Amino acid sequence: MKTLLRTITMNDLAAIYQRGQELSPASYLNDRKCIQRARRNAKKTGIWDDITAGLDPTKDIPGFRRSDFRNYQRNGNRTIHQNKEGERRRELSLAFTALWLNHPSAHLDYLQDLLWAYCDDFTWVMAAHEGRSIDLGSSMLAASLSEILHVLGDKLEDEVRERVSSEIEKRIFQNFWNYRNVDFWKTIRMNWNHVCNGEIIRTALYEIEEPSILAQMTHGAIQNMTYAIDGFTDDGGCEEGPAYWAYGFGHYLFTAHALYLKTGGELNIMQGEKIERICRYPLAAHIEGSFRSTFADSSHGYIPYRHARIINEFYDIPELYELCSTRPDRSLKIVENHELALYDGRKASGKPDNRDYLLPDLGQVKLRGEPGPKQMTVLALAGNNGVPHNHNDIGSFIVYRHGKLHLVDPGGPVYTKKTFSSRRYEILHCNSLGHSVPIINGRQQKAGAEFFGTLKVENLNGEGTKTAAIDMSHAYPKGTVKSLLRTVELDSSSNRLTLEDAYAFSRKPRSIEEAFITFENARIIAKGREVRLGTKANGLTVRAKAEGTFSVHRMEEESKEGRGGEVVTRIVFTPSKLDKEMVLAFEVG
Question: From the CB of residue 199, how many other CB atoms can be counted at a distance below 10 Å?
Fold first, then answer.
């Protein structure tokens, strides 16, 4: 992608800011009509009552103990400090929202005490990122604090306002420009880039009034965000998965929206075909409801209303609203101040998107069966094992039917010190044992971009049989397999899946394990030739078409590193005969 601001000099940017000097990067938060709408939305959604019940200015402000912060370095657990920080951030949000909405429970001193407490903290950096001058947590906090000053500045005492601004200057702006701070995130091609650069830009838009200084502060940071856009594949795919699309690209959206408003539309970094393709990515990753692709360290969930709203201010993609969480009347759920001010009462249509989707550069395909109660949805992945938040999972697939995920990708583990260390691939959720891929001669797939798969598809969005073929020949260490072609066929009319792995070896293999990963109860039937997942009324059967036997392995201890508490069950098919060339096929339905 062409570098953002490639044709806009520092002086040009200063002139643009000069013309928009009286404009706000979040004008709707200060607009009287929008605040009135926010009050109505807060009362309709229960947020108003949450403030009434939850805001208690008399309770102690959550503090951060040194031992809580040090816990990560001592034993790798990052949740203790993060939970304490999350508790205080919730208090800050309640106190801010109450004053913004003129809620009866609003308490100015409590908000000011919370702001003061943040100024007293010895660091704003998360415990897991100790040693960095700026990280995800500190940049997001700075943006939140500066937004509070921007919206409620006239209500805050000078002493508080000035101290918060001083701390932002010292902890964020000065660190950003200190040449001795080597900040990897400035030009990295993943979510850290958009979060850190984006939140620093938004903080500057709130805090810095002088156009030339604002241009100096933001010009390079805006250009830096190009690198993370380049981290998306050309088809718009997110290698980190839909949860990180919402997180990383979400901050790009927030920043783009703020720049657009601050400059009266003169600066629009939402332009470009690739940006539009990235905006459409969640449609390709969605299954049904909150279910979506969990490849890499991703997880299930909905996209926030704010994301869909911002995107639809620049592109006509109303289908994204169908991926938002809804209330019983199909109105969209809103959870924070920007959404309270922006939400216009839109409702989801409730109409499912039954299209197939292909992301050829990402190497991901979604196949849909015939609509109805037995509709089957299959997601399959080729790609490579060198992506951010990588799992060694080339050829992995997900099967959904009857409102359930029957064959799964287990998603990301709970993050600890181990997760981002040399021991990452000891974790079941990250290695090949946790995915529906073969183990050959006891060998798993390896990490690195040199281990890859290629994807070819046929008859997408057509009738009859839809096919995805994944060449997995280069997914394993050299000498493991000569060629391995995985073919996934979905008969859309019967909603049945056929999986076929065609192997070729230089010499007869010692062992092959075909694996199917599930969170469901699994029991072997038909004398070891079939496995039944789930219940009789709402289950699925995996049948082997080759000679051999199934075995079921509940990975209870290994599953404790997962996020959701589910136990990974690894279903293994062992063929009774091995040869230099062989085909192992299975029916799933």
Answer: 26
User: In the chain, what are the domains?
Assistant: 15-342 (1.50.10.100), 357-588 (2.70.98.70)
Residue 279: strand, helix, or coil: helix
Question: Cα(353)–Cα(356) distance, rounded to whole angstroms?
Answer: 9
User: Which of 40, 96, 88 has its CA nearest to residue 62?
Assistant: 88
The answer to whether the beta carbons of residues 362 and 237 sit under 8 Å apart is yes
Structure tokens at 469: 């073929």
Average pLDDT over residues 168-189: 96
The answer to whether the beta carbons of residues 142 and 166 sit under 8 Å apart is no
Q: Going by C-beta distance under 8 Å and a sequence separation of 6 or more, which residues neighbour residue 82?
A: 126, 127, 128
Q: Is the pLDDT of residue 66 over 90?
A: no
Amino acid found at 100: W
Does 80 score more than 90 pLDDT? no
Distance separating alpha carbons of residues 514 and 434, to the nearest angstrom: 12
Is the per-residue pLDDT at 536 higher than 90? no
pLDDT category of residue 450 using cuts at 50, 70 and 90: very high
Neighbouring-strand partners of residue 457: 468
Residues in the chain, overall count = 589
Average pLDDT over residues 381-405: 96
For residues 113 and 119, give the distance between their C-alpha atoms in angstroms, rounded to a whole number. 10
Other CB atoms within 10 A of residue 456 CB: 14
* pLDDT 10s digits, 543-572: 999 999 999 999 999 999 999 899 999 999
Among candidates 196, 144, 157, which has minimal Cα distance to 173? 196
List alpha helices for 516-568, DSSP H.
Answer: 556-559
Per-residue burial over 322-359, b if 16 or more Cβ lie within 10 Å, else e, is bbbbbeeeebbebeebbbbbbbeebebeeeeeeebbbb
The answer to whether 386 and 450 have CB atoms below 8 angstroms apart is: yes
**For residues 193-205, average pLDDT:** 98
* Inter-residue contact 487 to 469 (CB < 8 Å): yes
Nearest Cα neighbor of 152 from 27, 30, 37 is: 30
Task: Kindly give, in sequence order, each residue whose CB lies less than 8 Å from that of residue 54, ignoring residues fewer than 6 positions away.
Answer: 94
Asked if 383 contacts 450 with a C-beta cutoff of 8 angstroms, the reply is: no
C-alpha–C-alpha distance, residues 371 and 470, integer Å = 25
Q: What is the mean pLDDT of residues 345-355?
A: 94
Torsion of CA 72, 78, 81, 82, to 10 degrees: 160
Say whether pLDDT at 535 is over 90: no
- DSSP, res 155: G
| CB under 8 A, 24+ apart: contacts of 568-571 | 568/410, 568/428, 568/429, 568/434, 568/517, 568/519, 569/517, 569/518, 569/519, 569/520, 569/521, 569/522, 570/433, 570/434, 570/515, 570/516, 570/517, 571/515, 571/516, 571/517, 571/518, 571/522, 571/531, 571/542
Predicted local distance difference test score (pLDDT) of residue 65: 81
**For the chain, what is the mean pLDDT?**
96
- The tens digit of pLDDT for each residue in 145-177 reads 999 999 999 999 999 999 999 999 999 999 999
